[in-house]
Amino acid sequence: MITLKGVDPLMIANNLTPYEPTHPGEVLKEEIEYRGISQRKLAAQMGISHTLLNEVLNCKRPVLPEYALLFEAALGIEAEMLVKMQARYNIQTIRKNKLWSERIEKVRKLASML
Fold first, then answer.
1. DSSP code for 4
2. Which of 27, 52, 68, 102 could be a cystine partner for 82, CB 3.0 to 4.6 Å?
3. Residue 17 and residue 5: Cα distance in Å, rounded?
4. In this structure, are residues 71 and 28 in contact, taking their beta carbons and an 8 Å threshold?
């Protein structure tokens, strides 16, 4: 995290959390469209169903480590980056969930009493 004297570190652009998290499927979809690769052809190369690939690209299914390794092999995009992006997406999505936010706050209060 970047810090500057007298500036709230959460207000520095590099430290901001986006309002809407980015699912790695969005990035992958843009990449294959840019490269002009069809989803069916990519799915066949990766050895997965077209439906599964389409669900990942449309953010309806997470990029699991296994899929990330297949994307790395097919597109040259680092698997670790995709997995980290998915983890950040998951965490941001959960933090925006009201029930989970309340539960997390309750745990923080109980932990502060220990």
1. B
2. 68
3. 21
4. yes
Compute the Cα dihedral for 31, 34, 39, 44 and give only its sign. negative
Beta bridge partners of 7: 4
Residue type, 49: S
Give the ranges where 1-114 is alpha helix by DSSP (H).
Answer: 24-35, 39-46, 50-57, 65-75, 79-95, 98-112
- When pLDDT is cut at 50, 70 and 90, the band that residue 27 belongs to is very high
Instruction: Give the burial class of 13: count Cβ atoms within 10 A of its Cβ; 0-12 exposed, 13-18 middle, 19 or more buried.
Output: exposed
54 near 25, Cβ under 8 Å?
Answer: no
Give yes or no for residue 60 having a pLDDT over 70: yes
pLDDT at 20: 82
Q: What type of residue is 41?
A: K
